[in-house]
Task: structure prediction
Amino acid sequence: MIEIVINPNYCKGCSICIEFCPKKVLRPSNNINAKGYALPEVVDLDTCTQCKLCEIVCPDLAIAVTPKEKRGGRNARK
Amino acid sequence: MLKHPMLKYINEEGPSGKRFPHLLCPGCGAGQVLNYTLHAVDDLINQTGAKKEAFVFISGVGCSSRLTSHYLNFDSAWTLHGRALPIATGVLLANPELKIIVFTGDGDAAAIGGNHFIHAFRRNINVTVICVNNGLYGMTGGQVAPTTPPFTSTPTTPYGNIEDAFDLCKLAEVAGASYISRWTTAHPIQTTKAIKKGITNKGASFIEILSQCPVHEHQTPVEMTKALKEITVSIKKSMDSNKIPVGELHFAPRPTWTERYESVIEKANEMIS
Result:
């Protein structure tokens, strides 16, 4: 189960995550946080590939994506 | 609740209340550089087993220099304007095993700290200098800086800047830095890799990151990020192009200052005995 969490206290609504997302999972929304910044919202969670680019480019460390589950290599079959 | 993985290196609460979110403007490039640097440091801690105590962050004064001691959960020092590199030299002499990362802006490095900048690279001290270059003095109101491109209008040059800009990477190369690369905030993965290589490199490493200042250049962060991709070109394709080359510009390891200093200590001990 993939989860994308946007921290409303930290987000400043710069839209850089929306621009960088290769699968266009995020889009601008009308949700306003306490400081008056418009937060992004998740459109299509199923297309998210967990590339975590939004996490790397966020200037405010406000967005988080569920880490990829480690597919066990050789030891998985045992 | 799911949290950003790099928040484990951040002091969200301080003695005088909440410290995060940071004071930088929305869409600031310095915040992105902080994120890239923390990702690089996190990779080094996880992959090479480097200890968290081995990293020291030092900065001077400026927007980008606010990133160190106020927010980071690492050993750090927030020092005088332009004087981050002399402090870094002192820290390195006290303990040559430390990995020192210096956050600096273009005004901090090229204007007031210009002499410290060239002499740190001439000595080849083992530091990683991360320069967030937005081409203006952001903290004081967007005035013209030594790195402002010619013909740009700023509050102090309303009819256009008549001076040519500093090329900080070439300056660092002739001064003697051993690893130099230039990226922009629009190249997240490449910047993170460059910072990692800079930290692992023995000797002076200089990473210039072209950054946006959406407030003083009166554009949205997204427009400026797209523009940063358009005005730059990879160093491999930069032969017949007048765009700014990005990539690994210079890599030539040579003996560091601390190595030479240790050899001098050995020689002196031999002569005494």
